[in-house]
Amino acid sequence: MSEDKRAKITVFSDYVCPFCYLEEPDLARVGERYGDEVEVDWRAYELRPHPIPTLDPDGEYLHSVWNASVYPMSRALGMTLVLPPVQPRSRKAHEAAEYAREEGRFEEMHTALFKAFFEDGKDIGKEEVLLEIGATVSLDRDELQVALREDRYARKVISDEELSRRLGVTSVPTMVVGLDGEPLEEGEAISGAQHEGGRLERAVERALSRAPRGSRR
């Protein structure tokens, strides 16, 4: 009997990217439609790693992008995003998410980080804030603190970013859709929040159509 094949969506994302948060409903819809036939694998991507300067939260660029795109999209999706008063680096937030993954709480921490930054305006670049967020999803505060201070998951974040460069990813969110077990280089890359048009679903269908006959779940 053939082993069941499912589609895999590898998502390169950053916790300081509003469009990555705005992609969540689309991915949730795909998950509801396909169930066990699709897996979502979140990968780290820092938009502004050290030493690239972070953006000015009061600058014209951010306000222009938010007024033209982020606010209209968030209203259309029924989400409440607010331009954060800070623009931190995101390395430690990604490391905290990787700690949560190891503890079986990735999805909860992933969503909590986005909400803390884009709905509550918290500085997710600060250790204390990350510890507070972790506590809300039942992560051990002391263990998380040790992991962050030891840079325990820095190598995983760097590895994800090295992978993104090999794949030619230059913006987020970028979703690479393929069959689980296939090289990511063979997947179909889709960039930008896809809340309209069904492009992500069509990519999933194309991936599943390549599965051996009888192997779809």
**The CATH topology:** Glutaredoxin
CATH hierarchy, class: Alpha Beta
Q: Kindly estimate the percentage of residues that lie in beta strands according to DSSP.
A: 5-15%
Order of helices and strands: EHHEHHHHHHEEH
Mean of all residue-level pLDDT scores: 95
Main sheet? 4 strands, mixed
Overall number of structural domains: 1
Strand order of the largest sheet: 2-1-3-4
Q: Which secondary-structure class do the elements indicate?
A: alpha+beta
State Rg: 18 Å
Helical residue percent band: 40-55%
Let me know the CATH homologous superfamily: Glutaredoxin
Structural shape: globular
Strand tally is 4
- Helices, by number, come to 9
Q: What distance lies between the first and last C-alpha atoms, to the nearest angstrom?
A: 13 Å
Oligomer: single chain
**CATH level-two architecture:** 3-Layer(aba) Sandwich
Low-confidence stretches: none
Region (Disordered): 183-217
GO molecular function: isomerase activity; oxidoreductase activity
Biased composition (Basic and acidic residues): 196-208
Protein name: 2-hydroxychromene-2-carboxylate isomerase/DsbA-like thioredoxin domain
What can you tell me about this protein's structure?
The protein is of the alpha+beta class and 217 residues long. The chain has a single domain (7-209), classed as Glutaredoxin. Helices cover 47% and strands 11% of the residues. It is built from nine helices and four strands. It has helices spanning 18-22, 24-34, 60-76, 91-102, 106-118, 127-136, 141-149, 154-167, 199-209, and strands at 7-13, 38-44, 174-179, 188-191. Strands 2-1-3-4 form a four-stranded mixed beta sheet, sandwiched between helices. Strand 3 and strand 4 form a beta hairpin. Helix 4 runs antiparallel to helix 5, helix 5 crosses helix 6 and helix 6 runs antiparallel to helix 7. The longest helix is centred in the N-terminal third of the chain and has 17 residues, at 60-76. It is globular, with a radius of gyration of 18 Å. The chain starts with 6 loop residues before the first strand and ends in an 8-residue tail after the last helix. The model has no long low-confidence stretch (mean pLDDT 95).
